[in-house]
């Protein structure tokens, strides 16, 4: 069953004026060219090329130990969804960055997001259903659990009521009202300047999933994107959504699973 998605479009027109190589003044012209090409490939979301170029950068003794290079290496791994290698590269950045450098904060966010993504993958694998032999299926009676405590937004009998929405409206009207309210909240609260910290251009998507629990609070917020800074900001904003009247199934308050894609355009 497909979950409903709200599309939140935030148009950003940002032209980065400082290239990656301009922060590495002591490098040779050849090494500057290498890292600048790598950053441009990453910025345009050509992550395959960025990885090949980064591997060449790491062969240079003058580049491999620089915290800026290690951070870009980590960002590329993160975009490639190799969270174990991303975590290792963020740790290297944290160890090599000067005390007080803004790189340390970004590296810490990267480590936190990488670990969370790794743990989520482990939980997903652990919850996969075991294979069942065909001849054993006929021997078991099929039962349906009617005591659901978590229900997808698409099938909830009574959706959560967002403050300001009319509780006397139909379920369809309440769904629309809540979707509009959540989109407006994200649009107003999301820090658009966060995009300048990533250096990424073009279309950027952040997939967010969360629960509205049986008391109406937003909990269990998860995000996926190509950069940990974007994930962190999405989680911050969604976690700040106000408490609402909980959803109900058969007259009983239940948790409701909700999915929200946030889409950026950066030029």
From TrEMBL:
Alphabetical keyword list: Signal
InterPro entries per the UniProt record, alphabetical: TonB_C (IPR037682)
Signal listed as a keyword: yes
Signal peptide start-end: 1-21
GO biological process: transmembrane transport
Residue ranges of every copy of the TonB C-terminal domain listed in the record: 206-264
Pfam family, one: TonB_C
Protein name, UniProt field: TonB C-terminal domain-containing protein
Organism: Nonlabens ponticola
Lineage of producing organism: Bacteria, Pseudomonadati, Bacteroidota, Flavobacteriia, Flavobacteriales
